[in-house]
TrEMBL record:
InterPro entries linked to this entry: Chorismate_synth, Chorismate_synth_AroC_sf, Chorismate_synthase_CS
Protein name: Chorismate synthase
Cofactor(s) this protein cannot do without: FMNH2
This enzyme's EC code(s): 4.2.3.5
Biological source species: Salinimicrobium catena
Keywords: Amino-acid biosynthesis, Aromatic amino acid biosynthesis, FAD, Flavoprotein, FMN, Lyase, NADP
Keyword Lyase (UniProt): yes
Length: 354
């Protein structure tokens, strides 16, 4: 199985399955001398962990990160940073009925077709349990690039949209509700909607928006490793992601150049920021902002038609503890993936000129 590593200099490799003994990772290429606040790492883990509120999966995991190497007396040593996170609350019997049956729109069918030997318990490697490793590594990356401020929040749940720009929001409000939407009234509507959907055994999609502030100009490696291309890859590698747009995004396609061009101020900043802080694949020093669309969770607690491994039509209903909507827990994952990208480009940029 290829494809378990991300990054060029600051590189994360993850391993593990949802119902195996543990998941974990290795961060290669983190320079020596970075102060690591382990409590801060753990705070990030709490924001993603299952069982954190009534509107997410009720699997209960402590998600304590055990660092095995690469950190000594509170600082990185420049050697590989290895870590593990135990799986403690697997309930594999919830999956015995899908041993020979494929859940529609999960990864059961494709993993079986590709590998032919599928750990069906909890979705195995395809489970979003793996994203705990990304959050742990992202928390380390954030401490390497601590001058940059990466903030994500829930901006839509189904048809309920936060109709405000990030500049008009109080981003310190994000963690004050379980949905992670920085507008109390909209957050209450989103939470009620998720509860309603869950009571029907159904699921719903949503959008996470992210802004990266205090970014120096010059990050990004054209032509293939453009900053927005790597951010796109990072976001699209998160489970259940269906869309990524940055700056003006798809709306830009409806505009005229005379409106869309970001006119300069004398200090090089721009009056508008339709570019989303990136031009030619390189940061220009303005805020980077982007949106990530998540599909509704595939496992429903209601009957749907599907096929078994013999290709016979059968009816199935999901069992166990699933997220009715992933976005509240996806917020820290989006931030973590953004931090991995920015840390990598921060290091790569040190090779750009003498
Ligand atoms: C934070 C988070 C939580 C998730 N929780 C569940 C879940 O409880 N049940 C489920 O079927 N899928 C869940 N998913 C989505 C699956 O992991 C994902 O749909 C599956 O791996 C198939 O991949 P794809 O949807 O990207 O094609 C979750 C995704 C994220 C990001
Ligand atoms: C365990 C986590 O989320 C899981 C993601 C997930 C999936 O299919 O992606 C399915 C569920 O797994 P299980 O049936 O084992 O409870 C979620 O709970 C986690 O995020 O740590």
């Amino acid at each position: 199985m290829a494809g378990n590593s991300f990054g060029t200099l600051f590189k994360l490799t993850t391993f593990g399955e949802s119902h195996g003994e543990a998941i974990g990772g290795i961060i290669d290429g983190c320079p020596a001398g970075v102060k690591i606040d382990l409590e801060e790492v753990q705070r990030e883990m709490q924001r993603r962990k299952p069982g954190q509120s009534a509107i997410v999966t009720q699997r209960k995991e402590a998600d304590t990160v055990k660092f095995l190497s690469g950190i000594f007396e509170g600082k990185t040593t420049g050697t590989p940073i290895g870590f593990i996170i135990e799986n403690a609350d697997q309930r594999s019997k919830d999956y015995s009925h899908i041993k020979d049956v494929y859940r529609p729109s999960h990864a059961d069918y494709t993993y079986d077709q590709k590998y032919g030997n599928r750990d069906y318990r909890g979705g195995g490697r395809s489970s979003a349990r793996e994203t705990a490793c990304r959050v742990a590594a992202g928390a380390v990356a954030k401490q390497l690039i601590k001058d940059m401020k990466i903030t994500a929040y829930t901006s839509a749940v189904g048809e309920i949209n936060l109709e405000k720009d990030y500049k008009d929001l109080d981003l310190s409000e994000i963690e004050k509700n379980v949905v992670r939407c920085p507008d109390e009234e909209t957050a209450a509507k989103m939470e009620a909607h998720i509860r309603e959907i869950r009571s029907q055994g159904d699921t719903i999609g949503g959008v996470v928006e992210c802004v990266i502030q205090n970014v120096p100009a010059g990050l990004g490696e054209p032509v293939f490793d453009k900053l927005h291309a790597k951010l796109g890859q990072a976001m699209l590698s998160i489970n259940a992601v269906k869309g990524f747009e940055y700056g003006s995004g798809f709306k830009g396609a409806t505009m005229r150049g005379s409106d869309h061009n970001d006119l300069f101020n004398e200090d090089g900043s721009t009056r508008t920021n339709y570019s989303g802080g990136i031009q030619g694949g390189i940061s220009n020093g303005m805020d980077i902002y982007f949106r990530v669309a998540f599909k509704p969770v595939a496992t429903l607690i209601q009957k749907q038609e599907t096929i078994d491994t013999e290709g016979q039509k059968v009816e199935m209903q999901g069992k166990g503890r699933h997220d009715p909507c992933v976005v509240p827990r996806a917020v820290p994952i989006v931030e973590a993936m953004a931090a991995l990208v920015m840390a990598d480009f921060y290091l790569l940029n040190k090779t750009s000129k003498i």
